[in-house]
Give the backbone structure.
Amino acid sequence: MLYEFDGRPALALYKQYLGEHAAGLPVTGLMFPLELRIGPRQNRVLRAPLSVDEKEQSITYAGNVPEGSYARFMMGQIEDLTWRRAQGRETSLDSLGGRQPGFSLLVSCAARRAVLKQRVEEEVEPCATSLVNRLS
């Protein structure tokens, strides 16, 4: 649960960023995740809002939001989601150095399904095709 960004109420700042899209929170927030840079290596992770509390002016995210993290609001595009999944698939397969994969595990989340809806298949089908092609 996040209460503030640099002393400003988290929900008020988020609503200011979302503008007209704020009326649909928390669902519309799935297209506007929070990017965090965490730790000395500055690992980047995304957090999707699960709920908002008007009284507390807080946002509950799916995953931890460590104090002191660098945060920025992002704007998602469906094409970016599917393109990045394909990019990750190729990077994973290339890291095998020509060896055949023993299995593949594709992990998604409820936020991706909520945003992509029926287009979630656009992520799964290319992954399956790549694996079949590599194994043939």
User: Anything to note?
Assistant: Strands lie at 4-5, 8-9, 34-38, 43-47, 49-53, 58-61, 70-73. The chain is about 35% helix and 20% strand.
